[in-house]
Amino acid sequence: MAAPGDTYERELKYLLSGDSKVISKMIKTCDTNEAESYNLMLRDPFMVVRAAGSLGVDLVALRWDFSFPIEVKSSADDTMHFSKNPRLGEQADKMRDECAQSHVIPIYAYRLKSYRGDPWRIFTIPSESKLRGRSALLRRRIPEFEVTGNGNFIMRWENGMKLSDLLSYMNMSDFNEE
């Protein structure tokens, strides 16, 4: 039997990889704009690799224009307090530091269970690191976690960027085929 989070890791992997069956299932409860954005993955999918290991990342999404590590979280609650589990904060700190060294944007994908419509919200980790090119532009658009006075992270699902909005933004390309 799969671990609880594996179901949503696989769902996100298949959505980003352009799996038509998973996309069709997802868009059943989405509005027209959300559905159109998910359908973009049929034309311009990512290569997505599932990663393994504690304090690592869950997925790595690769495409000609964007590449980033993704940590997947899911909950029936719309707010995730990292202070409830010290391992969550350690994991985020490690991911932020490793991404800073490589100048890539760390992505957290938060899946709200039993939600009708686009259930995925995207966040990044607050960081002073310098990014270049498209990654720098993307980081400006993606909401960061909240940080408490004690330095603990909080993800509020409603404050995240819809995955469908992220997909739409990433597909506004200036790439011209010859």
Task: Describe this entry's structure for a reader.
- The structure is a single chain.
- The chain is of the alpha+beta class and 178 residues long.
- It has a single domain, classed as Trna Endonuclease, Chain: A, domain 1 (3-Layer(aba) Sandwich).
- Helix content is 36%, strand content 22%.
- It contains 6 helices and 9 strands, in the order H-H-H-E-E-E-E-H-E-E-H-E-E-E-H.
- The strands form 2 sheets. Strands 1-2-3-5-6-9 form a 6-stranded mixed sheet.
- Strand 7 and strand 8 form a beta hairpin.
- Helix 3 crosses helix 6.
- It starts with 5 loop residues before the first helix and ends in an 8-residue tail after the last helix.
- The mean pLDDT is 91.
* Integer average pLDDT: 91
Strand content: 15-25%
Number of domains: 1
Q: Give the helix tally.
A: 6
Oligomer: single chain
Report low-confidence residues grouped into runs of 5 or more: none
What is the CATH domain class?
Alpha Beta
Across the major sheet, the strand order is 1-2-3-5-6-9
Return Rg in Å.
16 Å
Secondary structure: number of strands = 9
The termini sit apart by 48 Å
Computed structural class: alpha+beta
Order of helices and strands: HHHEEEEHEEHEEEH
Helix content: 25-40%
Report the sheet with the most strands, covering strand number, pairing sense and barrel closure.
6 strands, mixed
- CATH topology descriptor: Trna Endonuclease, Chain: A, domain 1
